[in-house]
């Protein structure tokens, strides 16, 4: 899923949680009833025993196009060699395209059997009938809330049924250039607004004129959401009826972001990806970005450090998302495929500690104790796991956010509108769209 | 009608058939289906696609609706882009074509140089210029600074600089195509006309004004209509270079339609928006035809 190099561009990265920018072509736009409209209940009675039926090939879709791709392929390979009667055809599609193609392919009966999607897309795809509940699988695997941190377990449930089995958790972190920090005499990564401010001033004094570039596009809205939660706000009503980020907490969050530009810590008009490219080139000392960038920074050979994002607001908090396994309604129609799919998901879920190699935080509590994770760069973020916040499981939210919240944050950071105005316009549009969505997905 | 005439008719239809099948399947049918979709609340992933009559159109035309501003802002963006790119893409390629039509050493090399960008895909052009035009780390600002000009222009995230960038890149990218059409047109102008003009004592500018330009009218009309439609359909450049920023000011109509229909799956509304855009384009094309007809462009064969 990460798209590390310069050439791979922000398109894919921006498409990382919710598909943000405009749509590329979706193959086919058929009408009528496909499998998508079909079975809601899935195939029950999965016993938990490995699939023992006739040999078959599962179609497996995911969006791991970055440094996490090889890690996933290695897992798939080892699954196939463990299972004589199940072959897996791995199809990797960039996340940006993934959420457009999946419903279209499922509708046409050409979708996958199993796949991985982001937590905040589960509800949308459940409402669209693309994926089926996996309660029986969770039960048979003895997966329960106790195995996972609550914040990642809860949002996988839509209308009282579980649609996803968590694989990992990923969040945003603060990356800093160790060399710059050494030169500026900063020994500890900043942990709050005051120490961050001091660090920026020290860096400026050491000759780094603009030490913390503030993006106004990806991942600006992830920074904003993190800060919003830190200030005690909530972006959306739990029932999906309203956007609530234009309150005092939101205004404080966006104001702080704009202030970094006004104080001169960031240049004006940081264009798409520039903050990250500048960081890799040693022009920018501090940047907040997803932990999926770790693999890219490792391979770039940059002397970087990683730490939890500082507490700017009142309490520790950070935006997070999670990769979840899903099974499609297409697979659910055939008992053999369904059982093989569940065998696959169960096996993969057990491997979530090996997945730490992909730069992620394993979702299972037990897997975070393994050395694969504790020795990884992202281990320093593991303590934060209970301060991570996920978007609520509201169908269609991923479509609403790019045209509302992201625009508001963009305008606020650019200084085109005051934080109050930018957020209240965005939130009122979002509320209206969310009301439409409730009707659309409820019908 | 004679038997021969009837057979001719059948043969003609047979020859036309392959095209008609494609035209019917990929143009007519989608147009009609689009109209049908635009009358529904159409999300193809949901089982229910309720009929809503003209609601989608009403939403797009009602200033109080949440869809109004995004759609009309995108129409405005398309309008601005078209307004500035079309004249430049008519005039600059014409000038280039006239120069390239003259005889001088290395002419073919120059022709190739001007045409070369056109063979690049929009993704290549967009990504390349996005990096070149970056406000803080781009080469363009860096060179501007080196020669003493302002080096802090936000080409991709401020207005009007973003329009200068988008129009400029598009002109650079596509002028070669229009120039080639003009060169073909120039080569079709009979030599005798120039000779006669010279014998009559016409100067260089008089020849251009009275011989070259009138003879190019049909070609110019073709270039104008094609460029107009291409500009009105602009999507890739702003999708890749600015992602619609700042805010959504450079998000064009096609960008809006693609986002609404293919990403948010609100195909009814997207289809309605497409129809409004189509009607606007048809009206614009009619105006162009009328202008050229008034100037006799269609009489010259």
Keywords:
heterodimer; A: 443 residues; alpha/beta; D-Maltodextrin-Binding Protein, domain 2; 2 domains; 9-stranded mixed beta sheet; two-stranded antiparallel sheet; 18 helices; 11 strands; B: 301 residues; mainly alpha; MetI-like fold; 13 helices; 0% strand; globular
Question: Please, could you describe this protein's structure?
Answer:
The complex is a heterodimer of chains A (443) and B (301). Chain A is α/β, with parallel strands linked by helices and 443 residues long. Chain A folds into two domains: 53-169 and 320-383, 3-Layer(aba) Sandwich (D-Maltodextrin-Binding Protein, domain 2); 171-318 and 394-442, D-Maltodextrin-Binding Protein, domain 2. Helices cover 40% and strands 13% of the residues of chain A. In chain A, strand 1 (56-62), helix 2 and strand 2 form a beta-alpha-beta unit. Chain A starts with 8 loop residues before the first helix and ends with a helix. Chain B has two domains: 1-37, no CATH class; 39-294, MetI-like fold (Orthogonal Bundle). Chain B has 13 helices and no strands. The model of chain B has no long low-confidence stretch (mean pLDDT 91). Chain B is globular and about 75 Å long. The longest helix of chain B has 35 residues, at 3-37. In chain B, 37% of the residues are buried. At the A-B interface, helix 1, helix 3, helix 11, helix 16 and helix 17 of A face helix 5 and helix 12 of B.
């Amino acid at each position: 899923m990460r798209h590390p190099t310069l050439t791979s561009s922000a398109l894919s990265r921006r498409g990382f949680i919710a598909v943000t920018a405009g749509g590329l072509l979706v193959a086919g736009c058929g009408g009528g009833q496909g499998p998508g409209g079909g079975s809601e209940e899935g195939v029950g009675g999965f016993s938990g025993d490995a699939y023992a039926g006739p040999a078959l090939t599962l179609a497996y879709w995911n969006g791991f196009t970055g440094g996490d791709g090889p890690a996933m392929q290695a897992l798939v390979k080892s699954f196939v060699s463990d299972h004589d009667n199940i072959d897996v055809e791995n199809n990797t599609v960039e996340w940006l395209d993934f959420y457009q193609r999946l419903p279209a392919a499922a509708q046409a009966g050409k979708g996958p059997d199993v796949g991985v999607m982001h937590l905040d897309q589960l509800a949308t795809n459940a409402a669209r009938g693309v994926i089926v509940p996996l309660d029986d699988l969770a039960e048979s695997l003895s997966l329960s809330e106790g195995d996972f941190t609550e914040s990642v377990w809860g949002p996988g449930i839509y209308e009282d049924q579980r649609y996803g089995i968590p694989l990992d958790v990923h969040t945003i972190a603060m990356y800093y250039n160790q060399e710059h920090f050494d030169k500026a005499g900063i020994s500890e990564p900043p942990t709050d607004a005051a120490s961050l401010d001091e660090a920026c001033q020290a860096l400026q004094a050491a000759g780094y004129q603009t030490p913390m570039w503030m993006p106004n596009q990806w991942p600006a809205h992830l920074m904003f959401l993190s800060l919003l939660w830190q200030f005690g706000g909530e972006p959306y009503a739990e029932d999906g009826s309203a956007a609530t980020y234009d309150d005092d907490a939101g205004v404080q969050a966006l104001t702080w972001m704009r202030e970094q530009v006004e104080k001169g810590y960031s240049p004006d008009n940081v264009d798409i990806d520039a903050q990250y490219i500048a960081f890799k080139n040693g022009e920018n000392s501090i940047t907040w970005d997803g932990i999926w960038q770790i693999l890219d920074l490792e391979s770039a050979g940059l002397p970087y450090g990683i730490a939890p994002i500082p507490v700017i607001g009142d309490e520790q908090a950070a935006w997070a998302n999670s990769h979840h396994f899903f099974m499609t309604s297409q697979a659910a129609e055939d008992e053999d495929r369904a059982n093989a799919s569940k065998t696959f998901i169960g096996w993969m879920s057990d491997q979530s500690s090996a997945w730490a190699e992909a730069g992620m935080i394993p979702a299972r509590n037990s897997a975070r104790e393994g050395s694969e994770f504790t020795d990884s760069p992202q281990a320093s973020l593991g303590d934060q796991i209970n301060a991570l916040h996920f978007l609520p499981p509201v169908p269609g939210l991923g479509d609403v956010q790019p045209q509302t919240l992201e625009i508001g944050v963009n305008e606020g950071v650019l200084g085109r509108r005051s934080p109050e105005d930018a957020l209240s316009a965005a939130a009122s549009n979002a509320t209206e769209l969310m009301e439409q969505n409730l009707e659309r997905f409820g019908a | 009608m004679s038997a021969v005439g009837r057979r001719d008719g059948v043969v003609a239809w047979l020859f036309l058939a392959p095209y008609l099948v494609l035209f019917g399947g990929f143009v007519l049918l989608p147009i009609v289906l689009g109209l049908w979709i635009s009358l529904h609340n159409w999300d193809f992933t949901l089982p229910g696609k309720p009929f809503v009559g003209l609601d989608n159109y009403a939403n797009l035309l009602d200033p109080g609706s949440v869809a109004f501003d995004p759609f009309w802002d995108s129409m405005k963006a398309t309008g601005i882009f078209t307004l500035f790119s079309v004249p430049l893409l008519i005039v600059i390629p014409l000038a280039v074509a006239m120069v390239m039509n003259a005889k001088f050493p290395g002419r073919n090399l120059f022709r190739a140089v001007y045409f070369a960008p056109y063979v690049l895909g929009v993704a290549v052009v967009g990504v390349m210029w996005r990096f070149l035009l970056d406000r803080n780390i781009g080469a363009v600002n860096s060179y501007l600074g080196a020669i003493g000009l302002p080096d802090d222009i936000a080409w991709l995230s401020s207005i009007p600089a973003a329009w200068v960038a988008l129009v400029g890149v598009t002109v650079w990218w596509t002028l070669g195509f229009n120039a080639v059409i003009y060169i073909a047109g120039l080569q079709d102008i009979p030599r005798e006309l120039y000779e006669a003009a010279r014998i009559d004592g016409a100067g260089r500018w008089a020849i251009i004004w009275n011989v070259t330009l009138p003879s190019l009218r049909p070609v110019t009309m073709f270039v104008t209509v094609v460029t107009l439609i291409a500009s009105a359909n602009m999507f890739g450049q702003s999708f890749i270079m600015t992602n619609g920023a700042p805010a959504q000011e450079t998000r064009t109509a096609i960008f809006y339609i693609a986002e609404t229909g293919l990403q948010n799956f609100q195909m009814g509304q997207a289809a309605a928006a497409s129809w409004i855009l189509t009607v606007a384009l048809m009206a614009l094309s009619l105006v162009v035809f009328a202008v050229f007809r008034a100037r006799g462009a269609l009489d010259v064969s």
